[in-house]
Amino acid sequence: MAITPESALAVCTLCLLLPSGLFLHRLLFELVYNCGPPPSGWSRASLAFAAAAWLSLAANYGMEVWSQHLALTERRHADSPLFIARVGVRVSSYAALMQAIIFGNLLLATSIWMVKASFMCLYFQFPRAALTRGLRTTLYIASAGVAASYVGVIIPYFTACRPFSEAWSVARSAAGTNCNPTDFIANPRWLYVHTALNTASDAVVIGLPLVIITRSLTLTRYDRTAFAFVLMLGVLTVAVTVARAALLMRVTSWTPETIVTSQVLAFAEGSMALCCVCLPAVRAAVKGRSDERRRRGEVEGGRKRGARKLWERVGERGVDV
Hints:
Strand content: under 5%
Radius of gyration: 26 Å
Strand order of the largest sheet: 1-2
Order of helices and strands: HHEEHHHHHHH
Distance between the termini: 89 Å
Oligomer: single chain
Number of helices: 9
Structural class: mainly alpha
Number of strands: 2
């Protein structure tokens, strides 16, 4: 399932544009066009986490563009004695490529976990009647678990190499003691831990609203459809996580194509996660428009009924000229 650098850039660009449009809609809806009650503290916190997720995803896109640019420009030097075939660049560009990969992975993980934090803040906005004391306590415990899983995923990146700058050291790589995360994240034990933490936190984020809604809330048909769509997209995001882990588990030696494919799958995962947290604002906007049209229809209907009754009374009594 190898992907060329050119197609990888196209896929990553599309994966950035779609959530960017949805995030801009949510930003404008909640801060500018919201005609309802003012946003609560949890709503503003959720929006702030979504903004952090988008910024991390955009920064990761910059890293992707830089790494793919290196891969494209370094092709012509494949016959050079200083060319490192396993990563597809020369020695002079090795550090830059590894920095792009390492910090891109860190930014992507941050983006995904910021989306999860944004969802957790949204759950605290459920009506008080739905959030019983037990459910609210469960939300606090789950939030702490999601935060702990983020720490568990991030810390190994900084502890795999000591000092951290050794992660992109050409000399250390040539000596056969390479500790950079492209080798580290392909370690089966790390993959199991990373995938377990990611999927477990995803399961918590996806499962909590199911518990709250089935126990305490009654949704309309349109709300159920919207919720099912977001849930399906969340499950698809988890499927991409598992697919990327399966790809890395099969890697015996890193090649430029393998690196590109892994990066694209990871970027698609972050993109779909950000879409999930922005889609509820679309449903809220559609519902607000529908309610506004209904209110206008009721007002117009009331005016027409009042005018009709007035003319009926005039007709009964007659008009003095």
